[in-house]
Amino acid sequence: MRAQASALILIAALWLAACEKSPSSSGAATAPVPPPTTAQQKAILATLPAAYQNADLENGEAKIAVCKSCHTLGPGGGAMVGPNLWGVFGRKAGSAPGFSYSEGLKAYGVVWDAPTIDHWIAGPRAVVAGTRMTYAGMESATDRRDVVAYLKVVTTAP
Predict the structure, then answer these.
(1) Average pLDDT over the chain, rounded to whole?
(2) Is 0.85 surpassed by the pTM of this model?
(3) Which end of the chain is less packed: N or C, by CB atoms within 10 Å?
(4) Residue 51: which CATH number?
(5) How far apart are CA 3 and CA 10, in angstroms?
(6) Torsion sign over Cα 145, 150, 153, 154
(7) What total number of domains does the chain contain?
């Protein structure tokens, strides 16, 4: 029993280390993008369907922390265990440069928007069989709404 616990701890530590590796980059330095102003945030949120426009961005920021263990969010961020999410809205699934996707995700065929991202983070494996994304999913519709809205604000150029 103790050996099994030690093995599980070792596996968890290795997985976390892989998720926390430094993102690769193309070698080009990218200037950090300042966070959007309140007015810019409102303008970005106004482009989303009504259900997402009054989201709690602070809750979205708190809940997206789990995503950041495997994804970068800023422009020029490299792939980690998952692809960089800058510009994800409007991008075809499985097409971010610099990331090797599963065949299932490449064939998924959707363009990421608020509802498809919401559906995806509810349970990726239920959406695309064979995805390599190990995230189990987010049950709370409110949390998903907040994460989608926050993701839109922080991955869209003002």
Answers:
(1) 83
(2) no
(3) N
(4) 1.10.760.10
(5) 10
(6) negative
(7) 1
